[in-house]
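#struct-queue
[09:14] JT: dropping the first one here, sequence first, then the structure tokens:
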Amino acid sequence: MAIVEGDFPRGAKARDEKREHHAHEKKRKVENLFKGAASKKVNKRRLNLKKKHSRIKKERQELQSLTTKEKKVIEKEKTMLESIEPLTFKMLAEGMQLLSRVQEVREMDVLLSLPGRIQAVVPITNISTPYTDLLNMLAQGEDVETKSLKEILVEGELFPCSIKEVTNDGSFKVTASLNPVDVNSEIPSTALCKGMKITAAVQSVEDHGYVMDLGISNARSFLPKVPDQDYAIGQIISTCVTGCQIDGHVATLTLSTVDSIKFKQNVELNLSTLIPATKLTVTVNKVLPQGLVVTFGNLVGYVHKDHLVNANDNVSSYEKSSNYTAVILYTLPLINAVYLSLKSSLVKPVKEKKEKDIIVPGQFFDAIITESTAVGLFIQLNKTAKGFVPVRHLSDNQDIFEDTRSLFPIKSRKRCRVLNHASVDDIYICTMKKSLLTQKALRYEDFTVGEVLEGKIDSVSPAGISVNLGVNLKGFIPKLHWADDPRLKKPELRFRVGNTITCRVLKVMVDRKNIHLTCKKALLDETVVAYTHPSQLDKNLGLKGTVVMIENNGVLVSFFGDLTGYMPRNRLSKKGISDISRYFYIGQVIDCVVHDIHETGKVTLTLAKPDTEQTVKRAAQPVSNLGSIVTCKVERVFDATDGGSSGLEVSIPSLKSTGFIPVGHLSDFPKLAPHLLHCYRPGQIIEEAVVWVCSKLQTVLTLKPIIVNYIKENCFPGSIEEMGMISVFPCVAARQRSFGIFASLLCPPNKFEVLFPSSQIPEELHSLSEKDVQHLTMEGRVIKVDKEAKKISLSALNTSVLQSDARVLEAFLRERERIRSHLMESSDEGLKYLANLKVGDVVIGKLLADFKSSANLEFELPNGLKAIVPAYHHAKKISKANDLIVGSVLYCDLILRVVYVTTKDDVIKRITGTSKLEPRGNKQKGKILLNTDYFSLVSLVDGKTKDIAFISNIRSINETVAPLPAPFELGVDVDVAIDSDTEVGKIATYHKTPVSWDAVNRSRNKRASSSDDGPKKKKAKKENAAKTNGKESQENVDPPTEVKTKKTQNKKAQKQLSESNGTKETEKSSLLETDKSTGEKKRKGKKDLTEQKEETSETCTNGELKDNPSSANETEAKKAAAKKKKDVPAKKETPVPKGKRSTSENKDKCAEDQKDLSPSKKRRTEAIAESTTKQPQQFNPLALPRLSIASTFKWDDDMTTLPLSTTSQVADSSDSEDEDADKEKAVIKDRRERAREKLEQAKQDEAKLSKIEEELNNPDRAPVTTDDFDRMVLSSPNSSILWLQYMAFHLENAEIEKARTVAQRALKIMSFREEQEKFNVWIAWLNLEHMYGTTEGYEATLQEALRYNEPFKVHRQMALNFEQSGKFDEAESLYTTMLKKYKQNKSVWMNACLFYVRNSKLDTARGVFQRALSILDKKEHVDLISRFGQLEMKFGQLGRGKTLFDTLLMSYPKRTDLWLVYIDTLTKVGDVESARQVLERCITLQLPAKKMKTIFQKFLEFETHHGDEERQDYVRKKALDYVESKTEVADE
């Protein structure tokens, strides 16, 4: 083997060939790895390019082989749309032209129906140019003949319209125009041709025809006259071109209203000539699931499946290449897609429909759901009519919108109500909202004048009250009609926003979408007939009207509707009324009589006489039919659940009228009445109904069994004279007041209003609301009858009742059986299953929660029904959630949709065994199995008897609305007696009255007896108290009191005392003070008053008073008088205590002495006073407090009336006082002393100045004067805090005008860049005006603040300020304004919701929340729902808040922030277990590791605070399992 030597370069190492080969191979693999990927990518791209080029080449070859016609067809197919979508609101654009149908003609506008179930409004100025010119001439006062819109437009006519404006703020408002100028503006005059359909307006009327306005420049047209056709100027007409002459650029057209001329389609069609409403012959080119693709001429069109020939046609029934006549609906801009309709109602419109095909808005249907889409549900109303329910009308609860398919399955039946008719699409817009289903009226046309309504006060203004009558229905109570006397000073205190108000329809204005109401009590009376036209009146007919205008010549009176009458002055003067303005006032309700009715419709009135001699035709209540039993037929069912408007509308053949049965009159049991309503169907005959109200306004019937039976048995008294005491009568509650309940007692042919006083009503009825009391059946015992005033008082505390408790229970069970029979025929499988269940049937369900021995077990039955096992009926077996439960039925609650089940073997044997009924009344042993509101279920276990019976827990009909608790608990053995065996079950009674019932009876009887004897006992107590007080006063009276009594009886002594001792009031007050004092003060007061008595006895001329005192007091008085006469100076030894006053005479004379003394003597007197204060043993009258004397006194110079001690003191010291005065005058101060004083004063002034300077230079010193504040604001003019302090300083001093001036100065001085600082001043100024200013000033300041600041910030801050200061009405008004102006701002909606929630208005907050969801963009919904869910859980219902969060997290499961907020909120509200369940759900989510780490940390932190070590270990284990699972996945 030859050896090959290698070549070694200089300095190189020997090469290792194996190592180099290995490295080269590795490098080549890496290069091939990347090069291979790149080469594959390049090859793929090249391959695609080759395929594309080959495909294009092949298509070119195929096109060259085709004919020209085939090429055009292929080009058309390329331009065809892939799907056919219906017209939506978002597709509308300004200038777009559509086919429309006149749906409603109103006074000032026209309502149009557009394709896509859209409505548009045409203002009166957009009808035509000639009509607008006429209106302008009329507005300028010219006398022109103009017809109204209703005279020139007919409902149902088809016209092309042009869109003028589309609002995108969530209100879905569309403004359109019918003016030919707008509709035909894009048609060139040269494109006009014969056969074209075009809209024109009458410009002028000529002899042989009409000059028409087409709205096209360089085009003239003329419409020849045809017999029986008369058009007015401005009227728009749909015409066809019968003749067309084009001379250059000017076209002259001859028009015709006959639609027999066909449009030429053999020419090249242009989109500008295809006006909506043009008829064409089209050929089906392609059939798609959404509709048809058709061709006409050289163009392609589209027909949506909603616009096929018939409403129930299917797209698959149309064949390709078939021909149809179509009408152009609209052309979509930009893509130029022409949409057409094949509907026969548009191709060949019929002006009048058959009566059987007409569906009136407000009609109810049990519709079948045929299709579910994202925008709503399509339903089948009947064989020929289709309906559509938009998403917003599916339910009042907005949470269900995301799960419509499961809640509204296809082919299921749902209750709906027709709202309106989309005539272009020939489909009825319906609603399934419960609020609209229960609402009596949907449109303003549904209201009738004179109808009594209930509404909620929306707002109160000086002009009147705005009332909410339902969804989209508003009413207005003018100021003249808000009370019988409308001169209210503060109506807002009487009419609170949100309160319910009863009113009567005064006037219906459909065109203005408004109703005028009245709440005058005089007009709410049913006997006042609502006459609306003079033709309804007769002479001498009595009326009640309202004074609306007072003139010198008479009074104008208004009635219902537009009916008015005039009362001339000469008629009033005959009644003795000379001064009209004093006798009448605006808004007064008066009784008047029709005097004359003129041919022009003017009504002359005269006042009705107050006496009964005048023969007036009164529109009194016809009582002849009252209380009669009639047969009626159900015409309409108002499906409502909350009183008021719910009930049956019936026809009464015997009375030849219609009537109404309120839902409360269907049963004696309020809980059953709403469910009995569903048992009636239109056309059903009701054999026995009692006429409850019979008037010209309405006829009300009742089906209450107790009333019907009482009428049939003729047990009612004929008159009030026949009513005996202690008689028991059934009646129906009408209204509740604080002092009792008013009810109606039927006594054919009359009906009386009776009163149940509060003391005669069970306590359970006091807590009921007005709504719960209305139509309540009550039994009452007569306790008082006032035959003259026709007032009757009843008591509901009676123990003797019309029906026994067994008969009441039997009536309840019979009505329950009616409901069960109705549910058995229901289309709902769940309700049918519930109705078919009987006692003892075996049921199986899934347990919803773990077993707890002390709690009821809830489990779910088939069809979603809920079942409950009471704690007493638990089996010994311990079960967990989701376990199967097997039990036997005890009772089915058809009202609550709940099944009560027992799992105890011994109970199951009892209720499923054979029965042997014991004779009636025999005592038997029983065991309580179940307690409900109305009865207890008892198993009979005596002997061989194995059966169950019902025992009533209500003893009279008065306890149906508020039953007493069951007297025995479950499992208790009781003694019972069988009362009867009926079709609905065995009925038993307690053998002995339960102890708890005896206690209630005793308390009620005691209450009734105490209320009956109440006035007498109170009167006796008052007399006894008066006697006792009289004795005590006689025994404990003080001598001063007797002296006072004597003084008041002796007038002569009073006169002398007033001259000598001053005013009587001073003496009286001193006497009262002495009489009320205690202890030492009382004894001292007696001494002073004894002295007064002695002086009084000396002053009296008669020597003694008229009334002699008691012997003891007389002796004391004589001794004191004798002592005074013998030893006058003895008063020195009896000084007056400090603070006590001597007699008024002494004090007055001393005061007068001091006035007459010289200055030196005054000083001397003061010195004497000081010396006497140091010696308390001496009497010093000068040291007494001064009195302000109002009257002058006669002064005696000798001062003999003063005490001798005082006179001697003043006399002895007179000489010394004169000497001291002379000495004081002789003293002269030294000059040096005066200079020293001046120097000292200067030093003090200097010190004061230096102190002031130091205070001014101190930066921490608080300003106290105006100058201080001026210096502060000058140093920092842009500081709002300083300006606000300045304003507060003036407000503390009640200087409001100065504070306002400071605010104005601040806004002028502050820099324009300091927006926030100026904003603070604006808010402070607004608060100032609102709290201390006038309404006008506040409004002016608010408008100015809005002009200079961002309006939203101003409104928000003021709303917060109002809320913090407790002014909730003002805050609510501001939030209402903000919700209208700033609809797209999310924070406004949240602040409003928070405001209503804080003020306990949860229903209003929920309404605002629903409105926010419908208006805000969907991207804002997440945060909105999250925040409102937190509010619900904190302040509202926890369940609703949890539902909101659960629904939200189903849509956004990866939003960990929402999960954490949900958990934190549940933890804050204390629902720890629910928070733990949510955390358990979180850790099962498939989220990124970073987010899962956050969730596990949150879980561990949660268990640290709310769990134990076991729970913490559980969380750690779960986290470890998660990490291991992720690691295994990564390894794989």
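[09:21] JT: and here's the second one, same format:
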Amino acid sequence: MAAERGGCALEAVPLPPEVRESLAELELELSEGDITQKGYEKKRAKLLARYIPLIQGVDPSLQAENRVSGSSQAAAGASKPQKSRSTNSRDERFRSDVHTEAVQAALAKYKERKMPMPSKRRSVLVHSSVETYTPPENHSAPPDVTTGLVEYLHHERPQVASVRGVPRGYSSSILETADGVPVNSRVSSKIQQLLNTLKRPKRPPLKEFFVDDFEELLEVQQPDPNQPKPEGNQVNVLKGEPLGVVTNWPPSLLAALQRWGTTQPKAPCLTALDTTGKAIYTLTYGKLWSRSLKLAYTLLNKLTTKNEPLLKPGDRVALVFPNSDPVMFMVAFYGCLLAELIPVPIEVPLTRKDAGSQQIGFLLGSCGVTLALTTDACQKGLPKAQTGEVVTFKGWPRLIWFVIDGKHLAKPAKDWHPQLRDASAEIAYIEYKTSKEGSTVGITVSHASMLAHCHALTQACGYSEAETLTNVLDFKREAGLWHGVLTSVMNRMHVISIPYALMKVNPLSWIQKVCSYKARVAVVKSRDMHWSLLAQRDQRDVSLSSLRMLIVADGANPWSISSCDAFLNVFQSRGLRPEVICPCASSSEALTVAIRRPSELGGPPPGKAVLSMNCLSFGVIRVDTEEKLSVLTVQDVGQTMPGASMCVVKVDGTPYLCKADEVGEICVNSGATGTAYFGLLGITKNVFEAIPVTAAGVPVSDQPFTRTGLLGFVGPDYLVFVVGKLDGLMTVSGRRHNADDVVATALAVEPMKFVYRGRIAVFSVPVLHDDRIVLVAEQRPDASEEDSFQWMSRVLQAIDSIHQVGVYCLALVPANTLPKAPLGGIHISETKQRFLEGALHPCNVLMCPHTCVTNLPKPRQKQPDVGPASMIVGNLVAGKRIAQASGRDVSQLEDNDQARKFLYLADVLQWRAQTTPDHPLFLLLNSKGTVASTASCIQLHKRAERVAVALMEKGRLNVGDHVALVYPPGVDLIATFYGCLYAGCVPITVRPPHPQNLATTLPTVKMIVEVSKSACILTTQAIMKLLRSKEAAAAVDIKTWPTILDTDDMPKKKLANVFRPTSPDMLAYLDFSVSTTGILAGVKMSHAATSALCRSIKLQCELYPSRQIAICLDPYCGLGFALWCLCSIYSGHQSILVPPLELESNVSLWLSAVSQYKVRVTFCSYSVMEMCTKGLGTQTDALRMKGVNLSCVRTCMVVAEERPRITLTQSFSKLFKDLGLSARAVSTTFGCRVNVAICLQGTAGPDPTTVYVDMRALRHDRVRLVERGSPHSLPLMESGKILPGVKVIIAHTETKGPLGDSHLGEIWVSSPHNATGYYTVYGEEALHADHFTARLSFGDTQTMWARTGYLGFLRRTELTDASGERHDALYVVGSLDETLELRGMRYHPIDIETSVIRAHKSIAECAVFTWTNLLVVVVELEGSEQEALDLVALVTNVVLEEHYLIVGVVVIVDPGVIPINSRGEKQRMHLRDGFLADQLDPIYVAYNM
């Protein structure tokens, strides 16, 4: 008895009949409520006291009490709920009270855990509760979401240039959150909770593992040396009893039908019931035979197309019959068999989008089905097209629908007789099956198999002629078809078919029919037994004494045992004999695998095993004695079928036989299994032709075996035990878990309050090289937010305790929204599909990646610093040159002595006003595309003079005073700039505040004015009024403005003399800008640097007075400012100015202007490019009609201070190729605070190159070039050509030593137009002390460099530049300030954001930042709010898969919440501050555990 050791505790002690009776009475009293639970337990203990000693030696958890008494808890559990009907929301299929207790005990251990609850906007779910709403701080009422900052903004985005941190003396209502968090912020307290939760140790400690320097290896889970291993002997093939020889056994099923139809025509075959339980029709054997013949004749002879018969023998035909019409189905099925056609029964498609309907269509298509049989009523109910024909369902082939009601059938001709052949290997019918992945396959069953299966079932169940059988199952497939349609006809039995709709109305109906028809056999599922328990109070007078077999079709479900026990407890007193309950196991491929025989047919006594869940997860069978909590109690499913052989083989790989104490897949060899998957040869071979082998590799038989898809083992008495299905198997970190078991655990956590009708789906999804468990449940409509969240956290804890596995994602969806399987269950594969596509629309989500994902790469340990000298030596040894590059040498490129003659721009303007007074320098366009204003050299000079006079006389300013210029983009701004230079003042250009958004834009203006120490503000009358208005007073202190002068109508006065600076190093102007990290930095530009900048741009772009360029940029800082205000004066070319703001009312303004003026060189920003791409995408044809032609453009440069956005520039190029834009024209520029123009493509020189680098290497600060399209590749485009006079080197961020070619480091720059230093950095002065005066720590230590703060690398290309040298390309990777340090690696936010935006079509924009080492991802949802929670899992998945990072918080917000500055860059730090201060009004915030 090797099996005994592998063992199962089997029930041993029989109780005398009188004790059984008294127990049964007690059960009844308890169930009727005549006795309390306590009283019941007392009396029961008394009754059993005498028998207890017999089983004293056994551990109580294994006390296999006799089945009769059932376990006390099961009895109590079964009877308690009967007090009210409402409890049927509890899905007892999975009920096991031992389990419920285990779960409660497990939860008791976790009482002290506090998890942060997700916050959700009120509108997302109508029934979400008020308390979870997070009001923003310092508001008494919740804000009106509709009138936020939204209406007037382009793309509904706040154009925020506001600054983090606030100058001293500001009201403290603006939060100082640059580094700390306001104490009362709700978000921060939740994050604190989250951090506390995450600090708990993970279950599996991370093992040390090797990380290759280049590849980040994911941890391979090492097997635990202490894990249980099977120790038993190898189990051999188990043979069932032989098939008995029956004397008058018919040669085929059809022969049996003919025999009964002609010799016993009056015998009842099938009784159909309506939804009230009334018998509506009884089909006799005579009628079945005659109607099937009629149908067969009609199908073969009366259906034609183009005078050819529509069908020929062997064709496949779809059978589409509702569950309530077994009679028509039976006629159709046998009619097809008689006509030698192959029936393919499928479900009735109700809508075009039924769950899984597309897959069924695929099956019909692959089977070549052209005809569908149905009933008149059913055909009328199908969705119709306008023509009145049935619509073609999605993915279905075109079908002809044929109604088989009597009036459509023809009477067979006298000389027509069907051929009744002996059962052969030809296909008889095809049964559909949906796999775990959702694909639908057709399993072919031959005539011989069908006959053999009927034979085996008849023998195993002891069926005899004319018995009555009640069938509750679906008669179209599996056990319902085998017992209720096929074997019943073989034995001339009478089947009472109970429709699903009747069970829904009256769960007791099947018991009443057993009673009224004195049925000998009933075929049910655990669910039907459970449903009837809940209703049994209504029926005192039913009796089940007529039953000799109650076949439990899903006996292989590990949780059927509790339904069986509970059912027996209640109905034993109604005549149900314990030995009548016969669980069986079956699969679509192998048909019936095993069935428990009643004892009168010689079956052994039933068995029961209590197994350790932990050992099962390693595939090992251990009877559990210590751990009461995590056990699985299973019952046997009887013995092998007659005439079959069975063995258990390993699940993966070669089918080796298992050991006695090992779980494996059950395989069957018999004449009664399916034969193939229709049309799928490969997987057919694998499943239907498996050859099990011994450990030595010797085949156990020359016959192939069929894999059943059932996992189990063979116990004592050769009883078969099933512990799960291959379809529900989830392998997490090498341990196997069964979906059904996890469902059961979840259901044991008081589901009555939350889970609607016990509808829970569990499946696994692959994320980051392992399966992750997902649990989706339908939430009851009345469940409150807190309750649901609490239930979710308890489910997590219960599953963690009992299965020792983490749940990756737990989602609750509204009641009735999960896709349904045909008979009301959940369609698992469709649910999984929706989850992965982001179409599940949950109302609550809890993700636990921190607890589940234990196979991340090891955090990078920084290497002990390699000194800069050894790096250089290393590079030399490796043959790599030091990475440095420079633009053309300026000294050799001087042109017409202008550079030597005029050191100062003010001089240049005066010179131009004298020599070419009427030469037009500027054209400003308005939104209609007409010229709003122009300025020639002389006009500009005269206006500048007037401004200078006003500054001195009205403003009483001295030389060197700072003046803030607050103007909209236009000629005024340029004129006042030169006015300041003429007066010897230092101008600072400032973007004016937005009149509808003073609260966020005015503080920035105020701050720049204060920080720059401006003595005066020059502006227009309108803006002057705005600065002093009541609305302004609400945002800032308006009493502290310096002198404000308006320049709208100044007196015409001549300036006595223009100021001349004493030295070229004097300050010319200040350039203020807010970085994306929210730091306000002003840099000083000397007169020398200003001229040098203009000279470099002039040389690179070949600018002369005869040229025109178009500029669509903001004129306030950086290169945008230089192009607007400086370059035209210096080079004399004409600038066509297009303010980006005007594009909001006319998107095509810029491109139309470029075309109209035939511009060769044009500049724009990313935000402009994006507006054109999004706004003109569909209008290229219309623009062509209007004559827009971009073939004139030689170079279109995007002015940027970031890594080039390749996808945007490429889509722009592709889109406007139709309008003549050359693919080579678009390029980018690069500048930063220390030098506003480092690279700029210009008109000559090779095209910008693109390289692909490995994103994983970048995280380790290394550059590894890879092929295009390789995994983890990231395209980087060169940022234009290095400007004349500019030298660039790549330095190590920490050691400041020079780096080699293609190494990632900080870009350092040296050039005559570097800024001379920060005027002030508001916020972080100390950090930036050495930005302008850095020296290399090794090598060339003399040159003074400015540090750009950007990471990048140089790479020598194969191209040659103008001087014939090989061209060095500079690639910008991203700003150092922006990078996120996570797990010891450096991440660029844009990379994570790109991945996230790809994750779902409704993600419009995304921004990421870190907070206390947690990665926070903010996504803008462009879709309905019900999609919001779909994004949580998708975002978490994609970041894990592509970046190996666990997202800490997912915040879902409305479009336009992520602030973007005028350059089109995301202001991530502002966003972070807004999030922490609770000001984003998010739709949903998910805290990942």
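[09:30] RK: nice, looked through the second one.
[09:31] RK: The first helix runs from residue 2 to 6.
[09:31] JT: good to know. The chain has a mean pLDDT of 84.
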